[in-house]
């Protein structure tokens, strides 16, 4: 091991989770154990903030606040969806890289950690490669995060267990509510959850059934499986005939037979040029009401599902923290260009450890649910998926309360003096 003396910078990117701050706490805590890491900085709002030299001094934070990050949701340092795109915006990307390394050099940043999903790991990979190319001595590692659970090579992603835990509880409660009001006329309730291309989040709600086929959800529709409208309506009709109500969970990226997202609003695009998704449940409700003349309501869990730290998985929080620690340990050992990954040793009892994987094989690669983990009709995950997902929701994070409500941490964010001219 060659000790690299200098400062550390950690930042967050992409959609927040209930445990992404636990990863940052892991980074900060581990960094504090190594004397040659002099100052620990945070980048506000990810790469976007770093480009603007918006850094905060995490050494000024109280130890209690850093510990409190382990039960605080969202992105304590702020996040962004800024992409350094050499393929479509080469000149702008080159300019961004020049600016980033000006900031790194000005503040003697020798360790950089970026917590996020696919695009964030791509950014970390690009920065690692650029550091090597420029001969700038810096160790760069990604930290995995995404409720979508679609990063490759890791058994699962920090953030996923907690979103599944919350969504399952919500589906159980909605199911009890709808079932208690069911009449002879019947009713259908469609719960929309996140997941553009991969259906891991929707599939996770199968755990709400707790092994009883009669329990909701009765149908789960995944983006990986094109909607068979006739088969779907037949199953809704049969479920209502038997139970007087039907609870459907749908991933927001559900596609029709033509491969089009049924909930896409093509008139609105997100930061990456994707059509905004916010209508899969509404589209299905229109189909059910129109074809079956059945009372149908929708529930969209939205941001609530990824911010529900009050019912987060302790297993998830522990793994998120461990990934932050592992990223720093790898860098201290001289490794750069890697992402910590969760390696499952056994499912029952559940045992895991942390490994490392090259960012070059992680960036911009999506991991989907295996087809043999889904029922033949495509409308319910099977026992293979249940075995995989069940351990990830175990344990409850103990969140302190104040006046009867969760007491979350807000960082002081003492600004680091800017040393460069404003970004052009």
How would you characterize the overall build of this protein?
This protein has 424 residues and is of the alpha/beta class. It folds into two domains: 209 residues, Rossmann fold; 146 residues, Rossmann fold (3-Layer(aba) Sandwich), CATH 3.40.50.460. It contains eleven helices and 15 strands. The chain has a five-stranded mixed β-sheet with strand order 3-2-1-4-5, with helices on both faces. Strands 7-8-6-11 form a four-stranded parallel β-sheet, with helices on both faces. Strands 9-10 form a two-stranded antiparallel ribbon. Helix 1 links the parallel strand 1 and strand 2. Helix 1 runs parallel beside helix 10 and helix 8 crosses helix 9. The longest helix is centred in the middle third of the chain and has 21 residues.
Short account of what is shown:
With 424 residues, the chain is an alpha/beta fold.
SS-derived structural category: alpha/beta
The CATH architecture of the largest domain would be 3-Layer(aba) Sandwich
* Percent helix range: 25-40%
CA-CA gap between termini: 39 Å
Q: Please report the total strand number as a whole number.
A: 15
Strand portion: 15-25%
Order of helices and strands: EHEHEHHEHEHEHEHEEEHEHEEHEE
Quickly list its features.
424 residues, alpha/beta, Rossmann fold, five-stranded mixed sheet, four-stranded parallel sheet, 33% helix, elongated
Please give the structural blueprint.
Layout: E1 6-12, H1 20-31, E2 37-43, H2 46-51, E3 55-57, H3 63-68, H4 90-106, E4 109-116, H5 118-134, E5 139-144, H6 160-180, E6 187-193, H7 200-204, E7 219-221, H8 229-243, E8 245-251, E9 264-269, E10 275-277, H9 280-292, E11 295-300, H10 314-332, E12 338-347, E13 350-358, H11 383-389, E14 401-402, E15 405-406
Parallel strand pairs: 1-2, 1-4, 4-5, 6-8, 6-11, 7-8
Antiparallel strand pairs: 2-3, 9-10, 12-13, 14-15
Helix pairs in contact: 1-10, 8-9
